[in-house]
Amino acid sequence: MFRRLTVIGTALMTGASLVALPVVPAGAQSTSWQVIASGLDSPRGLGFAPNGTLYVAEAGVGGAGPCIPHPLGQICYGATGAVTEVKRGHQTRVLTGLPSFGLQGTDEVFGPSDVGLNGTGNLYVTLGLGDDPGLRSQLPPNGQLAGTLIRAKAPKGTFKVVADIGAYELSANPDGGLPDTNPQGLLVTKGGQVVADAGGNSLLGVRSHGRISTLAVFPTRLVPNPFGGPDIPMQAVPTTVTRGPDGALYVGQLTGFPFPVGGANVYRIGPGGQPQVAAGGFTNIIDIAFGPDNALYVLEIAHNGLLSGDPTGALIRVGENGARTVIASEGLTMPTGLAIRNGNAYVSNCGVCADVGEVIAIPLH
To answer: Can you tell me the distance from the alpha carbon of 18 to that of 225, in angstroms, rounded to the nearest whole number?
Structure first.
């Protein structure tokens, strides 16, 4: 059967074949858009410090190896992941040498996925893997950091592991599937951190001393088989988590194969931890955020679906009455990260591009 796809780049599994989406260099397409950072390697999640400094997770470009098996071939390690700081118009890589994995023969990269900060200057970063965490033993020590949550005191450039998400997947396996971990979305709270594990189809809480607990597991759904025949199971692949104005957690899903158009949901997780659909009908959600007006903003990595061959994304506003407005689409090329501040939506654009990824600011009014 079709294994879930836990990646967010260009190589997609369609049965036994790979489909490569055409990716072109990004560039602000509207005169009202502003390029905040450029020359990035696969920019992903974004996070603001209280003083307005922006941090960008860069998944990197992989490396020459060693390589480990992957459902789509093999992924090869390199210490090319990073976190970039954007402060007063200047950008600097403040964390470098983080693990990055390139899927051979594609532009697909796993690496630093999201960033979050607390009020004391601690910078947290999820390090993606997109594979069986048991395979990490075949990697050098730095490569074995993949599948973890780390903490740094920016901008010193040193970090420590806070929690091993991959080890938790091996021991607890919340969704009961094949071992697979890909820590993606990150929310930093006063009580700890919340991580969306796209590979494990789970939402995890991290408390003091790295204690991990399962907050929610996201359901597999039956969807039409694009090749005909009986419906097939589609896994959830949660990619992003944030806190809503009502205090509940909200999670967006990429969806697994066959990535149906309109098949992605935003889930609300309240007391009891059972995911409830808060808003549906989206396609391949990669990030979500709430604006100061309490509206929900949804970022789609591929507005027409990951199997369409069209790399155009979309930023969609969902009002309190459920009305939806496409804020931006043309000019968003495989966007992968979203943050809202001071009336602007900040978006990681061309999130699967080496050297030409960027962060753009899009006015919301």
So the answer is: 17
**Tokens in use for 289?**
């955020």
Beta strands in 51-173 (DSSP E): 54-58, 67-70, 73-87, 90-103, 109-110, 112-117, 122-127, 148-153, 159-164
Q: Which two tokens stand for residue 146?
A: 């993949």
Distance CA 55, CA 188 (A): 14
Task: Please tell me the pTM assigned to this model.
Answer: 0.91
Query: Residue 140 contacts by C-beta under 8 Å, 6 or more apart in sequence?
Result: 66, 77
Residue with tokens 């395979």: 135
Q: Give pLDDT tens digits for 173-196.
A: 999 999 999 999 999 998 899 999
Using an 8 Å Cβ cutoff, are 58 and 14 in contact? Answer: no
The answer to whether 278 and 250 have CB atoms below 8 angstroms apart is: yes
User: And the tokens for 223?
Assistant: 């969807």
d(CA 126, CA 335): 18
Q: Which two tokens stand for residue 210?
A: 């790295």
Residue 53: DSSP 8-state: -
β strands within 190-331, DSSP E: 192-197, 202-206, 212-217, 221-223, 232-234, 238-243, 249-253, 264-269, 276-282, 285-290, 296-300, 314-318, 324-328
d(C-alpha 333, C-alpha 250), whole Å: 25
Q: Are 108 and 7 in contact (CB under 8 A)?
A: yes
Which residues have C-beta within 8 Å of that of residue 131, sequence separation ≥ 6?
68, 69, 70, 71, 75, 101, 110, 180, 181, 182, 199
Residue that has been written with the tokens 């020359």 in this structure: 39
pLDDT digits (tens, 9 = 90+) for 119-178: 778 999 999 999 999 999 999 999 999 999 999 986 667 899 999 999 999 999 999 999
| 207-235 per-residue burial string, b: 16 or more CB within 10 A, e: under 16 | eeebebebbbbbebbebeeeeeeeebebb
Can you tell me whether residue 331 is helix, strand or coil? coil
Residue position matching structure tokens 């730095």 = 142
State the Cα–Cα distance between residues 139 and 349, nearest whole angstrom. 30
Residue 257, both tokens: 């194969």
